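Researcher: Go.
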Amino acid sequence: MIQLLINYIKQQTGIHNKNNVTRTKAYLSFYEKFPEIKWALLASFVSRNAGWNMTDLHTEPYQELLSEDRRKSLYLTYESINWFIFQDAYPQLLLYQLSKEKNTPLFFLLKHFHVSKFMEKEWYQFYLHKNKKRLLYAQIINEQNVVEQPIMDQAPYQNKVFRTIPFLFQNFVHINAVILPTEKGKLYGEYVSHFLSVSKRISIGKRVANLLFYPYLFPQFLSFAKNVEITGSRNEYEQFMSDAPMINSKPLKDYYRETEHELTEYKGDWSKRVRIKRKWWRDCKLKKIERIDESFYEKRKLFWKMSNINHITDSQSVEKR
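Model: Structure:
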């Protein structure tokens, strides 16, 4: 019986982890069935943003600024991060579903999917006490630590992506953002910086989550998630904006085939070698709710202008300090 459950979860994870669109849809579908698992909706929006970043790489400014090799490296970075997170998170979601269906906690099976002891403990706590925000924060903490060793610490990603001039420029001017759109053409979200810091990524995740579930905005975000087809193109939300500089990117499937991944050997359970910091659990209060449509597109225009500056090339990189 147990082996059948393990095989089922592995099969379903493989089916839904084929590409960015299948992952985004799987997270959203799970949230619609189990809205108490708030992280699933957050993950769907973050995954959706990753798709937009992927198709951006085929737009003219990126093609002029970055070589094909650089753009491929950036794509593989987005794809690998989201693949690893899904590979870790989706078995957790399915085990929660099975635990509810069978009316008994099955989280002892998480070890068969390389899930941390940290999350096994948190799932049991949630099953008993139903603390939604604690589970949400635990999942944010877990997934950002999950990608640290196989992605952030690896030399190929460091040298080809994280230390390049274009990446550092984006980080410096805060051009990257996790966007939460509405069907009224309004954009909310959080700018992403200090991407290599686990603590910063966790903090950004908590702020995006608190914005996503902010009472008067949440229904608008949820409506967008449910009603707008997931394609991986920024046209998903730009179609509702009257003043956005439309680039007319195509759907993700028109640019990328499914990418083969290997589940690399982890250096053990991350939670056994990393100290859980108190600040990771602290709430991130939203000081002010503001739209970011105008500032986001001003920053994008600045980045697009870089494509016409000859002395900045994608071949430049920063020496390791």
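Model: The beta strands are 177-181, 187-191.
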